[in-house]
TrEMBL record:
Record domain Ammonium transporter AmtB-like: where: 29-448
Subcellular location: Cell membrane
Record's keyword terms, sorted: Ammonia transport, Membrane, Transmembrane, Transmembrane helix, Transport
Membrane-spanning residues: 29-51, 58-80, 135-154, 161-186, 198-216, 228-245, 265-284, 291-309, 315-336, 348-370, 401-422
Protein name: Ammonium transporter
Membrane topology recorded in Swiss-Prot or TrEMBL: Multi-pass membrane protein
SUPFAM superfamilies in alphabetical order: Ammonium transporter
Homology family: Belongs to the ammonia transporter channel (TC 1.A.11.2) family.
Keyword Transport among UniProt keywords: yes
GO molecular function: ammonium channel activity
Gene this chain is encoded by: LOC107431249
Record carries keyword rRNA-binding: no
InterPro entries listed in its UniProt record: Ammonium/urea_transptr, Ammonium_transpt, Ammonium_transpt_CS, NH4_transpt_AmtB-like_dom, RhesusRHD
GO CC annotation, single: plasma membrane
Length: 474
């Protein structure tokens, strides 16, 4: 993950060919394709998913929040964020900040962080330049903060959001990435997170719910009646998200190898099974299959398999899909209306359930089902096996829970601090007038050249009581 810090003498002398001996063109091509697939999950995937799922008057603002975040992460990433996440140790949970923009750094072969630490052996070695790794990891960072935005749509000030994104990436995301992926204390301790169930999804879910608490709820009328303005558009975004996950999980062995193939297959097994499980529960309890519910079930399946995509066998991926389509369904559809804190905090798109709950579930199940033979293909830490295998499995399950607790605690704390600091300078919420108007007040533009604020025509009006996001009472 971390790149070489010592430039070869031959390169300094200008003698390195365009295709050095260590470069594997197939691995490099797959890694760049994977990075592009992950990037497309954010832009355009989440951009148009958010635009379709929200009320018409918020379509443009929601899309822009995602678009802005995707762009704003890049300069932060190459100027300091990448090395804070995958560079040399500053603290047990943080890397040293530094530039990742020079050819002396980006062209040499990428190295994994395990090369920096004693008693840790590298199971894999990237056979491509650091530039490829920087781009791949940027896409993950960008998607994470866009997922977080789903909790604060339809009321957070766009100016406050513009300040929040670089601060959160710097002080929250980089800590989780370094601690688990970059060689930090959780990495060395053996916490398993194959492709971001903790670093991306649990972090975005915990931070998003925290941000929703501090920003406050939507207008009462928006919270009680929030019809999606374009479900076909939302399905398009969801489809890009689903197919993009091929690179999200398939790229994390850092090679086009057998583990990559297994990770891709497991990803789609779990996603499809979870979608079906969620849809079946909707039919059983609400008598109709819901498109929104299918999207939510798809997402929870993708999130749940992410911590163990290349570490578990496919039968386990099938079981994880069943659980990810039922447990988050229960927390969203039942517990969210019974627990006062969850009910009162207005988490617009339910990221607490789809990302925090599903991410924690996936990490815990990885601690049960991770197969030692598959783990040895990927992990650089010894004794990485699930509780179903070997004598160390029970300890691994506990490690997974501790790792989740750290990610939750850090994101709740740091997200709260960041928002309180921003609040001293910029209001976190739009004014009541802006909240009433929506996109036109926030941007001077509207998504559709149609009259009204996104209300349904009386002849087609119906209530989405089952999917009243944010815990509002139906």
């Amino acid at each position: 993950m971390a790149a070489a810090s010592v430039v070869p003498v031959a390169y300094q002398q200008g003698l390195v060919p365009a295709v050095p001996d260590w470069l594997n063109k197939g691995d490099n091509a797959w890694q760049m394709i994977s990075a592009a697939l992950v990037g497309m999950q954010g832009m355009p995937g989440l951009v148009i998913l958010y635009a379709g799922l929200v009320k018409k008057k918020w379509a443009l603002n929601s899309a822009f929040m995602a678009l802005y975040a995707f762009a704003a992460v890049m300069p932060c990433w190459v100027l300091w964020g990448y090395k804070m996440s995958f560079g040399h140790k500053l603290l047990p949970l943080w890397g040293k900040a530094g530039l990742a923009v020079s050819q002396d750094y980006l062209i040499p072969q990428a190295l994994l962080p395990s090369t920096q630490y004693k008693n840790v052996t590298s199971a894999i070695q990237p056979l491509y330049p650091t530039a490829t790794m920087v781009f791949f990891q940027y896409a993950f960072a960008a998607v994470t903060v866009i997922l977080l935005a789903g909790a604060v749509l339809a009321r957070m000030s766009i100016k406050a959001w513009m300040a929040f994104v670089p601060l959160w990436i710097t002080f929250s995301y980089t800590v989780g990435a370094y601690s688990i992926w970059g060689g930090g204390f959780l990495f060395q301790w053996g916490v398993m997170d194959y492709s971001g169930g903790y670093v991306v999804h649990l972090a975005s879910g915990a931070a998003g719910f925290t941000a929703a608490y501090w920003v406050g709820p939507r207008l009462k009328e928006d919270r009680e009646e929030f019809p999606p303005n374009n479900l076909l558009l939302a399905l398009t975004g969801a489809g890009i998200l689903w197919m993009g996950w091929t690179g999200f999980n398939g790229g994390d062995p850092f090679a086009a190898n057998v583990d990559s193939s297994l990770a891709v297959l497991n990803t789609h097994i779990c996603a499809a099974t979870s979608l079906l499980a969620w849809t079946c529960l909707d039919v059983i309890f609400f008598k109709k299959p819901s498109v929104i519910g299918a999207i939510q079930g798809m997402i929870t399946g993708l999130v749940c398999i992410t911590p163990g995509a290349g570490l578990v066998q496919s039968w386990a991926a099938l079981l994880m899909g069943i659980l990810s389509g039922t447990i988050p369904w229960y927390t969203m559809m039942c517990l969210s209306r019974q627990i006062p804190l969850v009910r009162d905090v207005d988490d617009t798109l339910g990221v607490l359930h789809t990302h925090a709950v599903a991410g924690t579930l996936g990490g815990a199940l990885t601690g049960l089902f991770a197969h030692p033979d598959l783990s040895s293909m990927f992990l650089a830490v010894p004794n990485s096996e699930g509780a179903f295998y070997g004598s160390h499995g029970g300890v691994q399950f506990l490690k997974q829970l501790v790792g989740a607790s750290f990610i939750i605690g850090w994101n709740v704390l740091v997200t709260s601090i960041i928002l309180q600091v921003i609040k001293l300078v910029i209001p976190l919420r739009m004014t009541h007038e802006e909240l009433d108007i929506g996109d036109n007040a926030a941007h001077g533009e509207e998504a559709y050249a149609l009259a009204g604020k996104g209300q349904r025509e009386k002849s087609t009006e119906y209530r989405l009581n089952e999917y009243s996001f944010g815990g509002a009472e139906p």
